[in-house]
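Hi both,

Apologies for the delay on this - the queue was longer than expected. I finally got the pyridoxal-5'-phosphate-bound model through. Below you'll find the protein sequence and the ligand SMILES exactly as submitted, and right after that the structure tokens for the full complex including the ligand.
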Amino acid sequence: MTKDELETLLVQGSVDTEEARGALTAPIFQTVTFKQREIGVEIPFDYSRAANPTRSILERQMALLEEGCGGFAFASGMAAITAVFFLFDEGGEILIPLDLYGGTYRLLDGYFKKFGITWRIVDTTDAASLEKEFTPATKAILLETPTNPLLRVSDIAEVSRVARERGALVIADNTFLSPYFQRPLALGADIVIHSATKYLGGHNDVLAGIVVIKDEELAERFLEIQKSTGGVLGPLDSYLLIRGIKTLGLRMERETENATAIAEWLSGHSGVDRVYYPGLKSDPGYDISKKQSTGAGGLLSFELGAAHSVKEFFAALKIITPAESLGAVESLACHPATMSHASIPPEMRAQMGISDRLVRLAIGIEGQNSLIADLERAFSASAL
Ligand SMILES: Cc1ncc(COP(=O)(O)O)c(C=O)c1O
């Protein structure tokens, strides 16, 4: 898909889908059920857990955007990830990255382990060393690229090649870059998941999850899982997501421009020990990021130097809000150790490289100078 086609699909992919009346924007079908004019005759929509017209518009658009066969919308990113893990049977193993969203770790370790589905951490950024990690029990490898919160980049095409040879599926959490900057299925992955709460929605007003599947047969199997587990996205939230997607490209361009400037500024700051941002030439993920993505995104992390109080730094921010989440127009600051990754035990966090001095910034669309001034204020106020 060319950039031009992608930009057009973001806006036009959900319009002109309501044939009966020609509504330009997607109508909200706030209904649970549909009249069956003749019993025993199949109709496209019979019950909204199975399918709802507003949700279907979104699911169709997401399948097109991610270049897959089937799109599926859920009530949250975690509901989407849960449904994906239901594809696997007892005895199966899932390989996971060195660092990943804390909730995904909690779901695997706290719940799927009980059903005999195990997980093992591997270095997904080192595709060459991955070959030896696959065992006959390995059913899938989960990629977050870039990862949350250390922005580590994995080579999707290389990992997919290795996984395919070993008969394992590649699941790519594409939350951080969205299909606007990165399309994992076109690079060889089998399943894409999103916390659509983030960039796809983009306005901090809707919690949602998306799954897109490349293979038709697997998509058919997954449709049954979506219907059976039932954590589907409601019609109004589907509409909000459709509306958010129209400006995805504009938001991501602006957020990346802001994030790049801030990452460069932080790199030269005496209060910062290290910056993690794949858009910086000095970042270990820069080359792969350039190869497989068309932008580095609005997320960056940094280690606050020992001469600053972490608590005071967050307290002094006035524009950037200390809060969970990311990917929306408002800039947010996260302290992974006590927020997004608090569900991971401290010793495991240390193993993953997530320190107590790590700050994650989700850069929004505000003025760049105002954001930098806000950070500078926090550096000054937190100096010990
Ligand atoms: C990379 C990633 N995947 C999945 C999730 C879970 O999504 P949700 O909060 O929409 O359930 C998050 C949430 O922060 C995330 O950052």
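Main takeaway for now: The first strand starts at residue 70 and ends at 74.

I'll put the files on the shared drive as well.

H.
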